[in-house]
Design brief:
- By secondary structure, the protein is of the alpha/beta class.
- It has two domains: 148 residues, 3-Layer(aba) Sandwich (Rossmann fold); 86 residues, Jelly Rolls, CATH 2.60.120.
- 23% of the residues lie in helices and 33% in strands.
- The chain has six helices and 15 strands.
- A ten-stranded mixed sheet has the order 5-4-3-2-6-7-8-15-10-13, with helices on both faces. A five-stranded mixed sheet has the order 1-9-14-11-12, with no helix packed on it.
- The longest helix has 13 residues.
- Bound molecules: adenosine-5'-triphosphate (ATP) and the ligand Cc1ncc(C[n+]2csc(CCO)c2C)c(N)n1.
- Belongs to the thiamine pyrophosphokinase family.
- It is found in: Cytoplasm, Cytosol.
- Pfam families: TPK_B1_binding, TPK_catalytic.
Length: 261
């Protein structure tokens, strides 16, 4: 096991000008799935260099950005928030939405022939194909609408974290975020307490963890075993600004997102 720390910061939930220059991520991509856009979606949009809609996610962008930013004219907003790509099996996007973005120059990738991988999987593959190897370590893919809703979709979305375990991917909902902590590294999580926490969890995924050790949590693990059917760390609380995690298995990290008053 390598002992170099991998650091994690949710600075994508802060306005871009507040961005932490020490972040190891310099290149965000955004994937919009087919669930209600979170209220902070415009912020993620501003951080992202590449914006991709997964099939019916394009309907959400078209319909809901105007609801989030009602100070401006809907038609202006719809043309300003133009995705770079729409990819998927195209059974959920409305024709009028597809035609609208196609006219604006969005690249449309119809993969209806592939009924074995999810639209999110297809979008992640696209983003990785577009990213030169040298830039992949700086890439972080933010995924909206990934949690809550249909449980089969949620599990499919979590499975994507495991299938692309070498890529930083953050699954987001209005209320929380999830990402993988690969066992290959020790992890340092810099908690942005103005926008996230204190509720958090650490969950072994795929296989039990014989030994996990943490610092910075109210209920720290100390070479503790975690497994489904035994202990998994839910309803934990972050104590300060830094949490460290080390484990012999990949773990899911989840932390609550604070609602704006
Ligand atoms: N209720 C949901 N909960 C979580 N994720 C979702 C949900 N609905 C859609 N998604 C995500 O958004 C992506 C695109 O959604 P879309 O509705 O276009 O998918 P789909 O392939 O048509 O789904 P299905 O045919 O199973 O209903 C899905 O692949 C999934 O990752
Ligand atoms: C064993 C197995 N279970 C389910 C599906 C169905 N499926 C999985 S991903 C996908 C595309 C959704 O956009 C569909 C239809 C399959 N192919 N194989």
């Amino acid at each position: 096991m390598e002992d170099s720390f991998m650091s994690h910061r949710s600075t994508f939930l802060l306005p871009p000008q507040n961005k932490d220059n020490t972040s190891s991520v310099t290149n965000y991509a955004l994937v919009i799935l087919n669930q209600r856009l979170p209220t902070y979606a415009p912020l993620l949009w501003d951080h992202a260099k590449l914006r991709v809609c997964a099939d019916g996610g394009a309907n959400r962008l078209f319909d809901e950005m105007t609801q989030l930013l009602h100070s401006e004219q809907p038609s202006l907003l719809q043309s300003r928030y133009k995705p770079d790509v729409i990819k998927g099996d195209m059974d959920s996007i409305r024709t009028e939405v597809l035609e609208y973005y196609k006219k604006l120059g969005t690249k449309i990738i119809d993969e209806s022939h592939d009924q074995d991988t999810t639209d999110l999987h297809k979008c992640i593959s696209y983003i990785l194909d577009q990213t030169p190897d040298i830039d992949k370590s700086k890439l972080c893919i933010l995924v909206t609408g990934a949690l809550g809703g249909r449980f089969d979709h949620e599990m499919g979305n979590i499975n994507v974290l495991c299938r692309f375990s070498n890529t930083r991917i953050v699954l987001l909902s209005e209320d929380c975020l999830i990402h993988l902590l690969p066992q290959s590294h020790c992890h340092k999580i810099f908690v942005q307490s103005s926008i996230e926490g204190p509720h958090c969890g650490l969950i072994p995924i795929g296989m039990p963890s014989a030994k996990s050790t943490t610092t910075g949590l109210r209920w720290d693990l100390n070479n503790t075993e975690m497994r489904f059917g035994g202990l998994v760390s839910t309803s934990n609380i972050v104590k300060g600004d830094i949490v460290t995690v080390q484990s012999d298995s990949d773990l899911l990290w989840t932390i609550s997102i604070k609602r704006k008053p």
